[in-house]
Amino acid sequence: MDDVAALSRRGFLLGLAAALPAPAFAAPAPLAFTAYRNGAKIGEHRVTFIAEGGERTAVVEADMVVKLGPVPVFRYRHEASERWRAGRFAQLRAFTNGNGQKQRVSAEALADAVAIEAPSGRRTAPAGASPLSHWNTAAFAGPLFNPTDGKLLRVTVRRMSPGHWAIRGEAEIDDFYDEAGTWRALTGRLWDGSKIEYRRT
Fold it and tell me: CB-side exposure of 197: number of CA atoms within 13 Å?
């Protein structure tokens, strides 16, 4: 990552921390994953947490580069802050750069709906909708939307066994969690049929 991008990321995190009061108790430990496509390393995915009272904010950062031989053919960068209050989704702010296509998404839980602002326009999701960001199984209790573009996902989610959740439909993903409910791995298929895998680091 170049110096400008590093400073931008640092400013994003510091700005988020400054906007929130000091934590009242220790936040969960950060999560770090190495991402693989068809067995080849393509990048990293990190989740760090800020906690206060009944609120938890997850700061998500993903950096990935897919190469054809030594030549980069696809670059992906995703940053998001996702706030949960008393175990329910409250707010999302996200920025994604997929091969130069930049998208900003914001979402806020209202009394009877979730208001989403995305590049394609404003939309209203059902109450209880949450972004699919994988770290929190509480999101699986209701409808899911894509934090990258704000669109509702046409998927079903099933608990296959303790710690194993399967997402099927327009996505094919399996998420795995430890006994405490902490996200520990992901496997899935991308649109081109390639295999994606996250391994904890």
Answer: 9
Q: Say how many domains are in the chain.
A: 1
Q: Is the pTM of this model over 0.90?
A: no
* DSSP conformation letters of 106-171: EEEE-SSEEEEEETTEEEEEETT-EE--SS-GGGGGS-EE-TTT-PBP-EEEEEEETTEEEEEES-
**Helix/strand/coil for 63:** strand
Name the residue range of residue 8's domain. 3-200
Pairing of strands 88-98, 55-68: unpaired
Give the closest residue to 55 by CA, choosing from 20, 106, 13.
20
Note the pLDDT tens digit of each residue in 77-125.
999 999 999 999 999 999 999 999 999 999 999 999 999 999 999 999 9
